[in-house]
């Protein structure tokens, strides 16, 4: 009787755990994610901000509007410079965003290229941890999903080429209907989704941040303020112009049959302990990354560059990983084995014949998590 009751309890606990895993994965963050960081996004509409009080209140980061639309000084956010100075003075990591109303790819009026120039003019010499394009203007919906996605891609690729982490902000409806969210996510862009609710119902891709209210209250800000949860800590990124190159990577989970959230450097690990990794995506904030995987019971698959494709067969666990870059920096990478429950040492090589430092893994032992960084 005791044994049967104990097994019943164990089964119930396991069932609850698996349900939680599914819920958290669908919600866009991993089952082992820590408590999300709370941050704010602000503009001149929030007035003059007392950043000392904001810092003291426990806010972890801020996202500052640089302005809106074309590259005219009249469309700069009038509090941007003050907000940057306040964040720096109080050691608050900050990102930036620009509200877009572009209807053209090129040109000096209502164009993505003009908006790109607008952002770059204002962030020159600064080090935001990410740069976002805010896509929500109803006057652009007629352009259609393909065109709007191409605008977001052009913006993000230009920011990445200048050494910044880039991303797209939109609400759940826009990501579901007006943008090809899967394409944006698979290119490695940060996804920042807005949905004012007690839970976020956006499930098309994982996301780094969720803007959950526009009516928050924060000491030091006299108005209502947008507040956000950050599930993947991307605040340690910043511009590779400062000498740092970030590696962003993710893995495919064979249990939940989904791509897990992007991880930057060693802010976390990609994978879920106990679940086989069957696919890998990776890209750099600057330069190119090349990688390949070994399929358990099989062979090394062809090399993949950046996010031109993923490495792996999504139905087959991997037991080996090789990574290299063209940056001149050293890529360090390691894997966690499901069979032993332990991390293997970091390796830096790229040689299938070198089992010590040429690749990460042990043939026959499934990999359930990976980590990597450059120095």
From TrEMBL:
GO terms for molecular function: lysozyme activity. This is Autolytic lysozyme. Belongs to the glycosyl hydrolase 25 family. Its EC number is 3.2.1.17. The lineage of its organism: Bacteria, Bacillati, Bacillota, Clostridia, Eubacteriales. GO terms for biological process: carbohydrate catabolic process; cell wall macromolecule catabolic process; peptidoglycan catabolic process. Keywords: Glycosidase, Hydrolase. The keyword Hydrolase applies. CDD domains: GH25_LytC-like. Pfam families: Glyco_hydro_25.
